[in-house]
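Side project, low priority. Logging it here so it doesn't get lost.
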Amino acid sequence: MNQGTWTLLRRDGVALVLKADAGLPCVLHWGADLGPLEPGDLDGLDRATGRQTAPGTLDAAWRLSLAPQESEGWSGRPALLATRDGRPLHPRWDATVEQDGEAAVEVTAVAADAGLTLRTRIAIGAGGLVLVDHELRNDGEGTVEVAWLEATLPVPKTADHLTSFTGRWAREKAPVTTAIPRGSTVRESRRGRGGHDAPWITLASNGTPRNRTGEVWAVHLGWSADVRHRTDRHTDHVSLIGAGELLRPTEIRLETGESYAAPTAYFSWSQTGLDGVADRFHTWMRARPQHPKSARPLVLNTWEAVYFDHDPARVEALARKAAEVGVERFVLDDGWFLARRHDRAGLGDWEVDPAVWPDGLEPLADLVRSLGMQFGLWFEPEMVNIDSDLARAHPDWLLASPESVPSPEGISFRTQYVLDLANPEAFEHVRGQMSALVDRLGIAFIKWDHNRDLVEAVHEGMPGTHPQTLAAYRLIDRLKADHPGLEIESCSSGGARTDLGILARTDRVWASDSNDPVERQDIQRWTELVLPPEMIGAHVGPSPAHSTGRATALAYRIATSLQGSAGFEWDILSCNEEETEQIKAFGALYKELRALLHTGSVVHPDVVDPALRVRGVVAADRSEAVFTVATVASLEDALPQRLLLDGLDPERRYTLRVRDEIGAARFGWTTPPWLGKDPVSVPGRVLTEVGLQLPGLWPVQAVMIHLNAE
């Protein structure tokens, strides 16, 4: 509803109220749907939440606008910082507001004195996720340099805790919760990609956030490079959370008529804890036209099976074994191209190495398809080794400071450099080689890797991270446009690039290079705070795990894989007869359950024992659910807690059975009767309000519980 100075946006349980007086509109409310308010109600909301009336002592009864700045009396971090020919700009906006349906608004703000136009779109998308887009245009004479342009929304003063994320290789997305710091604070990522320690998502909450209860406000930036996440907690204003692209000096310089479109910021409010935040992201993503609609195939990736040792006969035998156990997509990983016997050569030369594959990859691709599987191939299109034909022919195509490459003092990373895709010739070289292989081999899937940070990224003498990121987006978009049906996975040393910017054009992410299922329990849990499980690659690896050396039972590894887009990264030729039957059962169970696992609502019942990891997926109509109870260490109590199975219909009766065909869990002391072979019938209300007595699971064990409504 738009009534003069008021704009009310509503969708899927969320409302956002804007008030337009002078300048940019102010946000009066973002949170719970307030119902179909009339103008008088909105005026009452304004009066009920305002700071003061005349003759108060403040120069203005400050409310924060869509882009707060000093001219509004804002003492926090400005949302926009820009200069013209080295002089600061202090725009005074004259804004017009146009509502676009019930859930979106377009704001056009002109600052004639500063020669700027700011266009802002706010939309409440499917599931109640709020999307904020800013675009700044230079309408004046001279050059405007943009230092930053960030999206913000207000949160109440009762939001007193802040959760952000850090991590490292093979241990991505580790949450850190503190009291919200006073003042204006910023978390930055300066790696040229998200990075394993990226902010990922920032959460403000009333107290320490819980899985199923309490209010939480969250922001995520859809940008695959350098970012800033911000909070502002000041004594004389409401609090803010927000995010924007981290720009190097001179990276965005706008000549007259040019514009800068900031990455989309995604805001999720929940009154049902962290699961409510995730549900808004999942609902919005699943509603996108490009979201994968076909069943997510069972995958085998060859990396931990063969590494760089590409023997055609062995790889073909692996493909036959994969088909035997139910694999539907076979992906040949790193090592197939020129000079690629190790990770120090060959990147950039996307030609099949005849020394390893004398007949090319066509026989393998044909075999894979004849066995009923899709064929996939690994690339790292944004990178180049100095030891490559490409680098020797075109040293000027490196995205780096000229002083640092390729001298001994050069800043290498994994013995590789970045290929400057913003250079049209470099772009076309990579596109042409990749496209030819997709056509010739019938490639259905690309594992797209990005294994290093961007260090001293210089393009034509200027900071190059921003144009490099846009060029990578264009390359993916072009390949998918030229090859309809091609799917692409975003991998970046594992989960270092999993944002909604890359996922606007890719179909899945590789959550981590660690296939240790203990580490994966938390990595996957926090990755699915934003991404639905069907987009999270989760594979059964060997034991011991290559990343940690930890040995784990096959049943536990399978149960962990079933929580995402499942598959193998393992030499399954080494499996004995018992293991082969076990992984066949895994494949069959995945195909039976994936329609539920990849469409239902993900729930994480709150538990008290730090060794427990409990996760469920409940069908939209609550007719079916699967819960996985796992341990990552020994339980504290011999008699564990009862587990409340959240999300079920309390008015229906459920048949409960343990899915142990993938292998039985080991436990002692407490062995409740429902763990027996016979199904148990239980009223939903008992399961949601009284709970299910958990067994005394041993460390690193998992039980899968399947419930069907009668």
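Brief comment: The first helix runs from residue 39 to 49.
Revisit when time allows.
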